[in-house]
Amino acid sequence: MLLQIDVNSEETLYTQLANQIRYGIAKGYLQPDDPLPSVRNLASELGINMHTVSKAYNKLKEEGIIIVNRSKGVRISSSVLADRRTGYETVLEEKIRQLVSQSICNGIGEKRFLGMVKNVFTEMRSET
Asked: How far is CA 13 from CA 19, 34, 41, 53, in A?
């Protein structure tokens, strides 16, 4: 999986990185127990600060998506695709609320929004 950072994006670099790792998991590019580069190696590869990578990894660790182990390094959690996180639906619903709010503010109605969500699900499932 090739990770790319857009320094001109309004989205923070650590958020871009965390989102791309989540996307890689959703697409099947990253599987449970797959290793990720060390903070230092990934920062060097992407040409960004180690603290930025560390912040992204910490966020993913808090979410239970990755495991950081001194002897085994950084890995995708073995339970990442399982229905395992109590309260995850609540977190997801909050993110959906934010997207729906943004859509309403930009004149995108329910039917169009749901169509966009369906298209994204279809796209992600067909590319794997």
From this structure: 10, 22, 16, 8
Compute the distance between CA of residue 110 and CA of residue 100 in angstroms, rounded to an integer. 8
Mean pLDDT in consecutive groups of 10 residues from the start of the chain, 128 residues: 84 94 86 94 94 96 91 89 59 84 93 94 77
Q: What is the per-residue pLDDT for 78?
A: 86
pTM value is 0.70
C-alpha torsion sign, points 46, 3, 9, 23? negative
What's the number of domains the chain is made of?
2
Has residue 2 been placed in a domain?
no
Residue with tokens 């619903």: 93
The conformation of residue 76, written as its DSSP 8-state character, comes to: E
Q: Are 30 and 76 in contact (CB under 8 A)?
A: yes
Domain carrying residue 52: 13-76
Supply the pLDDT for residue 83.
Answer: 53
Given the DSSP bridges, would you call strands 73-76 and 35-36 parallel, antiparallel or unpaired?
antiparallel
